[in-house]
Amino acid sequence: MSTPERTAFHTDAEVALPALAHAAGCACRLHARRRWGTAALATLAAPDVWAQGAQQDWLQQPGGPAPAAAPSATAQNWDECKRSSFTKVASAGQVEQAATQQYAQMLQQASSKKALGPQNHPQVQRLRYIAQRIIPLTLACNPRAKDWKWDVNLIGSEQLNAFCMPGGKIAFYYGILAKLQLTDDEVAMIMGHEVAHALLEHARERMGKTLATRGAIELGAALFGVGNLGRAAADVGGNLLTLTFSRSDESEADALGLVLAANAGYNPQAGVTLWQKMMSASKGAPPQWLSTHPSGTTRIKDMEARMARVQPMFARAHKPDQRFGPPVAKPSAS
Q1: What value does the mean pLDDT take over residues 78-93?
Q2: φ, ψ of residue 259 in degrees (nearest 5)
C-alpha cells in the first residue's frame, strides 16, 4: 500500500514579477529596476484572485516570538524614518491597492506552478518569524503601516531576489536563501531593507517626482498652446514604463533597514557579510546597475560607518528565541 504523496514544492519555477516589485535580470540581484507599466494602476479594477483575510493569520498566531522592542515614540524620533514630500503627489491608496492586486496575482501564478511555499515549510516559518519581530517596529515609523495587511511568502524560484511591495507585501525567492546560504541575521538585513523601501514610500516618491516633472512640462506646453495638461495624470500607467530607485533611495533603505533589523534583535554586522556574499554572487555581471545603485564596496563602507549608531540598538534589543538555518545546499557539480 503506497503512502500518501506529500504536496510538492518546486523551487525552480519561472514566476513573473509584479510590476511594482523588482524586475528580473539586475546584476545587483536585489535592487533591480522597478518597472511601471500600464499594470501599475490598471490592476485597480481587477477582481480579487484569492481570499483576503487569511493571509495575516500567521502574524497574530499564539506562540509567536516575543517582541524585540515595544513600538514606542522612539521610532518616531528615528531620523531614518523621514519621507520625501514628493510622496504626497501620488495617491498612497491607489499604489497600495495596485500592489495588493499584483501580489495576489503573483501568488496565484506561483501556486499554479506548485512554487508557492506551503505554510509548514521551514523557510516560510523562518521568514514569518523574522517578520513578526520587524513588523511591530514599523508602526511608529509610518502611520499607514498600522493598516497594512502584511503578508510574507516564499516563491519557489532560483532567482536571487526579495522585495516588499507598497502596503507590506513581502516575498523572498528560494534562490536567495539557498544559493547565498543566508543566516537569520542576513535575512533580517534584507527584510529590513525591503520593508524600509515600503515605509519610506520610495515607489510613491518616484511616481510623485515623475508626475511633478511631467506636470511642469505639460504646464509649459499648455501656456504656449501646445499639448494637454491632463495628459500628465492620464499617462501615469502607460508612460512610466521604467522607474528606478535612486542611489539616495537605496542608501536611505540601507540606513533604516539596519535600524529595523538591529531593534528586532538581529546583528547589524550581518549587513556587511550579506553584501560580501552579494558581491561574490554578482562576479562577472555587467555593471549597468552602477548608474543607479551604490556599489557593493560603497554599501559596505556606509554600513560599517553606521555601526556606531545601530550596535547599541542591537545590544538593547531582546534577541530571537528561535534560530533557523538556510535550505540544505545542493552539492556543486563536479
Answers
A1: 76
A2: -65, -45
